[in-house]
What does this fold into?
Amino acid sequence: MVDERLCEIKDCLYRVAARVLIVRDGKILLTQEKNGRYAFPGGGVDHGDNFSQTIIRELFEEIGVKISADQISEQPAIARIGQVIDAIPRIHLYFRVEIGDAEPVAKELPFIWIDIDKLDTIEFVADGDELRDFLRKLIKEIS
It folds into this structure.
């Protein structure tokens, strides 16, 4: 079903989402979607919100972690064209976020910490192979 708010915008060609890369001890946090596949925490940027506001809201809604804007990278680590849902293409911007010692809780979605060596066992919502390669590179850079 198409988000009704998007129908009000006559020249809308895509939906932008802010996704979050949280890495701790060589593991990355992923949420499990309702279809059983995995994705990164985050969601669509609402009209009038900036990326930081979206990330702060989505992290609290999905995994109960409260952060501030200074814990979010200034620039996305990667930008990708995502899947098409209800005839609307998605653009995903992935931001690094430091959550310190905060412990996530499964609020809206269950989550897992996955070791880089087990990325091949994860079925991503979209773009699995390219995301795996990117994650391996990212984790090596920051470890």
Observations:
- The longest strand covers residues 88-96.
- The chain has a mean pLDDT of 83.
- The helical segments are 4-7, 51-63, 128-142.
- The chain is about 20% helix and 30% strand.
